[in-house]
Amino acid sequence: MANSNGAFGLRPIAKVGQNSNSTGVSGYTQYEIASGNSNVIYQGSPVIPLSTGFIDIVGAAAGGTVGLLGAFMGCEYVSSTTGKPVFSNYWPGSGADSNHPVKAFVADDPMQLFLIATDASITNEAGARAAVFANANFSSGTSGSTTTGMSSAALAVSTINTTANLNLRIMGWQDDPENADFAAAGIGIIVRLNNNFNSPNGAIAGGTVSTTGV
Known about the structure:
By secondary structure, this protein is mainly beta. Helix content is 3%, strand content 28%.
């Protein structure tokens, strides 16, 4: 039976260790998006720091090579049409008054655990077990829906490997009766970000979208 999960990007669910998992805007860090940035950034999209001091969506569907800052959770900006504040779960790529900042909220804790759906069959429970502590990349890391505002990033099953430069570390999977068909896409995998930009061990400089593979 097919799983009920579709792809939804990165969804914060817990923290590694005994860290508290704060919810709401107070649990995220505020950054800025350049008001002229035409890239759509969806809720749950992996984002990167730019050398300009702004953030942006990753520049490659697999996630790119710049250390990930975290997962985009939403934004606030002033409409260039109405002059009123807009609160949105995604950045539409236009419509902001350039006289005001575009505030972006990012789940950026290096210890953050995320839920992400698989893009394909992982065969069976034994296959999922064998993937724990391995690494993987995204599929569709730059895509999403402007109707729901949600990212369509998923975990690319075909990339699961011990290769150190992959973007995701697999920590387990979610026990969910509605998404328990390992032979179908949509298994909820628990991951953390490898080489997080904010990690004290992550010696990675801010990048540009062009350095991530586009």
